[in-house]
Amino acid sequence: MAIRVDAHQHYWEPRRGDYAWMPPDDPVLARRYGPADLAPELVAAGIDCTVLVQAAATVEETEYMLGLADATPSVAAVVGWIDFEDRGHLRHLERLRHHPKFVGVRPMIQDIPDVDWMLRDDVQWAYAALVDLDLTFDALGFSRHLANFLTILKRYPRLRAVVDHCMKPQIRHHGTAREELSSWAEGLRRIAAETGACCKLSGLVTEAEAGWREADLAPYVAAVLQAFGAEWVMWGSDWPVCRLRASYAAWHGAAQSLCAGLSQDEQAQVFGGTAQRFYRLAATPASGTLGE
Known about the structure:
The protein is of the alpha/beta class. It has 9 helices and 8 strands. Helix 5 packs parallel to helix 6 and helix 7 packs across helix 8. The protein is globular and about 45 Å long.
């Protein structure tokens, strides 16, 4: 039986002081989230294991996450961070790759003002190092980054890459920005057709209006599945960020409903198989998975 995977979630402790993007007074985000908070949600949703993804642009947060992963069997993999602008961080990649749960990195490209940052000569060493060390690359950005991500993924065809959050289409502006919807879908289609990247079916509720309905998300989910196919799509909660718009259960349920037209085998890929292959997760989840 295929395992069921949440391919994208976070734990954090704001008092650590390195979550620069986090509004300090946000009632949803600006609090500690740890394994004990998520455990009941995983049980209710029947999730076997998760991929824990960085939320701070520091190696120290990566170490923090690996410590949590060591103590939390439900965390099957950790996606960390290194400074692409500092070639000296190769030593961190070479060290961290020996941790059994460290799988790759995610630069926080969406927060970098220069849309062409990823193309700079001084950061190319990092993509090459990920290829050489057989580590993964989570591509985090917006629709405006799609063309440059296509360039990078074609430049490094052996880079094991996944598009985070469907590249954050602006669902809340669907009624006034149909041209943006069309260009976003075309950008994703090209990445799917011309590279070996996967895509995370995650983050969509956060880009929707408060009070969103499944119908608001349906054309975006359909575009992702049509572009990539189920075997290249993996569901992620983006918890606790998803709590800005929906509970864990509400987003998980909506995603299942929106994928109900797929075959059982295809649904098994979206909700576990694709993530298992991409991140090379164990075929059987650890026992006692949901304890802290």
